Amino acid sequence: MTGKLVLVRHGETEGNVAKILDTKLPGLPLTERGAAQAKAFGANLLTPPRALFHSRALRARQTASYIEAATGIAALERDGIHEVQLGELDGQSSQEAHDRFQAVYRLWHEGQLTGRTPGGESGQDVLDRFLPEVARLRAEYLEDGGTGNVLLVTHGAAMRLVGKTLTRVAPPFTTNNHLDNTETIELAPLPGGGWECVRWGRFTPPFGDKAESGADDPMG
Fold first, then answer.
1. 172 is a domain residue
2. CA 94 from chain center: how many Å?
3. What DSSP string runs through 119-145?
4. Which of 24, 66, 98, 195 is the most exposed place for a label (fewest CB within 10 A)?
């Protein structure tokens, strides 16, 4: 197995700038800066991906379209890989709303997956829709002897939970280290099943327990 599954956070959106908890589909579009980030990501790839997918969110589709333009690889929509749905907190930008979500989100990373915000998804709900897509992509593209990475343009909170669940990377690293726009979590498939995380944003193994929190923009 020579290819990796690369989870890519979309480019900057209007919601990111305004600190809005933007989860409902299709969601807000990229900013000019977000479009530039997506173009740069595609241009900086050393080799084209084997396959390129994106969630149903507008921001993910737009990001993938710029990667497609740079690489010539068609961007295809994939179900199940959209952002955590926050129910009544969706569209809010207050510190209280962010704190309420963060409290639930940290519990998910500690293994308490049943919690949810009012009207929103539980951590288990997110994994139940996202992980089968990961398994299908692995079977389709990473276990047939072919080469090249599979790129999945997705969302910050969902991809961090998935990265934590599939690998040995654990909190507080996974909760302290949010992903900037167009940063990646890169997963290498292991023989016989399982995954190894070889990149988490700007970090590579070993992933320490005392990483510093960055500017907190967990969503999108």
1. yes
2. 23
3. TS--HHHHHHHHHHHHHHHIIIIISSS
4. 24
Please list, residue by residue across 17-39, b when 16 or more beta carbons sit within 10 angstroms of its beta carbon and e when fewer do: eebbbbbeeebbbbbeebbebbb
Q: Are 28 and 43 in contact (CB under 8 A)?
A: no
Residue 210 lies in a domain: no
Q: What number is the average pLDDT over the span 164-183?
A: 95
Number of other CB atoms surrounding residue 187 within 10 Å: 27
Which of the two residues, 176 and 165, has the higher pLDDT score? 165
Q: Which of 206, 199, 212, 53 is nearest to 140 (CA)?
A: 53
CATH code of the domain in which 141 resides: 3.40.50.1240
Which residues are CB-contacts of 93 (< 8 A; sequence separation ≥ 6)? 18, 19, 20, 21
Residue 129: give the domain boundaries: 5-200
User: What pairing do the DSSP bridges indicate for beta strands 195-200 and 5-9?
Assistant: unpaired
**What average pLDDT score do residues 75-84 get?**
98
**Torsion on CA atoms 60, 64, 67, 71, rounded to nearest 10:** 160
For residue 10, being part of any structural domain is answered with yes
The confidence score (pLDDT) of residue 215 equals: 45
Place of tokens 């070889």: 198
Domain count, the chain: 1
Establish if 16 belongs to a structural domain.
yes
Digit-coded pLDDT (tens) for 92-145: 999 999 999 999 999 999 999 999 999 999 999 999 999 999 999 999 999 987
